[in-house]
Structures are given as C-alpha cells and as structure tokens.
Amino acid sequence: MTHATETCLAGPLALTIHWRDGAVANMNLAWSEGKTRSLSTDDGEAMQAALERYVAGEEPRWPELPYRWQGLSEFARAVLDALSRVPRGQMVSYGWLAAKAGRPKAARAVGRIMAQNPFPLVIPCHRVVGANGALTGFGPGLDMKRYLLAREGAPAHTLQKD
What we know:
5 helices
C-alpha cells in the first residue's frame, strides 16, 4: 500500500491531497499561511493549476482524478454527486440536496455528509447553506466559506456576518 501527500498553494488557500494506492483518498482545505507547496506528480501539478484558476476567479476545471469512494454509503455518494453539479456562485440548502439524492426529509443526514466530505472544494460543500440562506458550518471556518463564495461571485448580501 503506497501513501503520498501533495500540497497545492494559491493565494490564501492550501489544498492538501492525500493519495493512497494511486487514488485520492481525501483532501484538506486550509489557509495557506505557514504551508509549503509540495508537488510530485502530474496530477498534483494539474490540481495546482486548477487551484490558481479558482483563486483568480476563473472556472477551475478540476482535473479528472481517481477518487477513493470506499466507506461512503450509497446515499452519501448520491449527495456528493448532486453537489458536484451545483454551479459556481450558486448556493443550495441541505434540504435541496437531500431531495436531489432521493431522501427529501434527510437534511440533517446531508449536514453530516457535508462535515465529512473527503474532497472539499472539488466537491463544493461550501455552497451548502441553511434553509433560510444562512451560512452554516464549514470545517475550515465560516470566514473561508465567505471567501470561497465571494471568489465564485455569490451575491454579497448572502455573505454578511451575523
């Protein structure tokens, strides 16, 4: 079993890719302060270029990478698939995602799936908001969620701090 880690840096963002047996096991999104860029594969370089486009406010065109989906339920896969289709700058609610995944009353379960999203930014869990449009939980913090949504052109009034 082989393991490797690569870190992409662009502007204030750091995206760390954890590889296992040639596939992406998971990713971590954080602020770049104190991080060091470390790339060793063509896929890592492609992710770096996509992250740079993202930070520049452009369509990132994330590369097609082999992702390890093991350990995710069928419902979690359906939720993440529906979320991957949400366009830049658009926000959806947990309930909307639950309905798209075939379980309209499972908004709380969607929240748990978002909290455990193994591929943040690429599968844009930052685009998920509360039923009333409020910015709600996000692992790297609400300031980062605001930053990401602003990069994507989300309406400014939706990004105000309470």
